Amino acid sequence: MVTAVRISLSSVASRAAAVVMMLLLSSACQAQLSSTFYDNTCPNALRTIRTAIRSAIARERRMAASLIRLHFHDCFVQGCDASILLDNSPSITSEKFVIQNNNSARGYEVIDQAKSAVENVCPGVVSCADILAVAARDASEYVGGPSWTVKLGRRDSTTASPSLASRDLPRFTDSLESLLSLFGTKGLSARDMVALSGSHTIGQAQCVTFRDRIYSNGSDIDAGFASTRRRNCPTTANGNGNLAPLDLVTPNSFDNNYFKNLLQKKGLLQSDQVLFSGGSTDSIVSEYSRTPSTFSSDFASAMIKMGDIEPLTGSSGIIRRICSAVN
Ligand code: HEM
Ligand SMILES: *[C@@H]1O[C@H](CO)[C@@H](O)[C@H](O)[C@H]1NC(C)=O
Ligand SMILES: *[C@@H]1O[C@H](CO)[C@@H](O)[C@H](O)[C@H]1NC(C)=O
Model pTM? Predict the structure, then answer.
């Protein structure tokens, strides 16, 4: 009797130990991001990043848009790991020159400034991938957009992938179906995709990205809008880089005008207008055009979801000393 009890007690103890071990192991394997990640190791990290981001946007308002886009173009390519920030080097082929980024993605130097400010207060602690995520939130907030609590603890890649970048970053010529499927592979729903596209309420696009659309004379674009945009976007290649605001009404503030534009067939890019063009996402666009508060809260949730795409955590990846190169 006594022996039997002892055996079963010790087996309970060893099972409990096994369960604890498994919990520890599984949390190590899929370490979660957490908003308090730097609370002990770098309590001033968020404040330091915010100061750098705010001064950059105060110098140039468009930078808010550029920084939000940079986080997006990071997360869609092998996860939110700052791979987009790596320059060409003997061991790296940079993502900066793929068609979706070349002469287009910008703000790299602002992330470098934020990184060096953070390195001054806590060297070797805060990842470039986290700085991108925080910068996107600070940028949105600064230009009147939603704010949210950023989850932290991402680490930086030691690799970049131009081939994944060219495959996984959307193109302005993509159909609604391709866009839905691409965002779907990243775990983002149609609603997430429409909300995130609402970042085109700020920022600029180059003539080369909307020329075909404004000269198409199609029924999917407002004729007056097309004619206005043609003035600064000639048919010749030397106008390729001429800029136009993605939101014609309020290009410098983060609001829901982007969706109102789509209802009037005044989306600048084809990939904007396909969101409201008789397809499955029309109802979401209408809803966001009517209810800014719903857009705001969906945008914040979708940014958090996007920031969660395949992060490197735990002992994967590194903390880069400078964002443009591996240590
Ligand atoms: C749905 C698929 C998308 C496509 C095809 C697309 C494409 C583009 C293109 C072609 C430009 C103009 C680039 C240039 O002319 O240099 C642009 C700008 C921009 N995109 Fe997107 N985009 C998409 C989704 C998103 C998402 C999800 C975000 C953010 C979460 C975003 C944020 C921005 C911002 C803020 C700008 C302005 C950047 C600046 O002024 O520097 N876009 N996008
Ligand atoms: C990127 O742009 C530069 C300058 O406009 C151009 O010379 C280069 O060929 C482009 N790179 C790629 C890979 O297309
Ligand atoms: C569309 O209309 C414009 C202005 O009326 C004209 O210059 C252009 O050639 C037309 N484009 C097409 C593709 O028909």
Answer: 0.92
Categorize the per-residue pLDDT at 31 as very low, low, confident or very high, splitting at 50, 70 and 90.
Answer: low
Structural domain count, the chain: 2
CATH number of the domain bearing residue 182: 1.10.420.10
Q: Which residues have C-beta atoms less than 6 Å from ligand 3?
A: 215-217
Task: Give the Å distances, CA to CA, from 91 to 94, 158, 232, 316.
Answer: 10, 9, 41, 18
* Residue tagged active-site, from 71, 73, 115, 229: 73
Task: Tell me the residue range of the domain where 267 lies.
Answer: 176-302
* Statement: residue 285 has pLDDT above 90: yes
73 is catalytic: yes
Of all ligands present, the nearest one to the C-alpha of 137 is 1
Query: For residue 279, how far is its CA from the centre of ligand 1 (angstroms)?
Result: 21
In this structure, how many other beta carbons lie within 10 angstroms of the beta carbon of residue 53?
27
Which atom of ligand 2 is found nearest the CA of 99?
14
Identity of the amino acid at 272: D
Q: Residue 39: inside a domain, yes or no?
A: no
Q: Measured between alpha carbons, how far is 311 from 10 in angstroms, rounded to an integer?
A: 40
24, two tokens: 């520890």
- Burial status of residue 194 (CB atoms within 10 A of its CB: 0-12, 13-18, 19 or more): buried
189 assigned to some structural domain = yes
pLDDT of 9 above 80: no
- For residues 204 and 267, state if they share a domain: yes
Percent of the chain past pLDDT 70, that is, above it, reads 91
Q: Is residue 21 part of a domain?
A: no
Task: Point out the annotated binding site.
Answer: 74, 77, 79, 81, 83, 95, 170, 200-201, 247, 250, 255
Do the domain assignments include residue 269? yes
Distances (CA, A) of 132 to 110, 290, 325: 10, 31, 15
| Domain match, 151 and 200 both | no
The binding site for substrate comprises 170
Question: Residue 323's CB: how many other CB atoms inside 10 A?
Answer: 22
- Indicate whether 80 and 143 sit together in one domain: yes
Token pair 């969660």 is found at 308
Supply 117's token pair: 């400010």
Largest separation between any pair of C-alpha atoms in the chain: 95
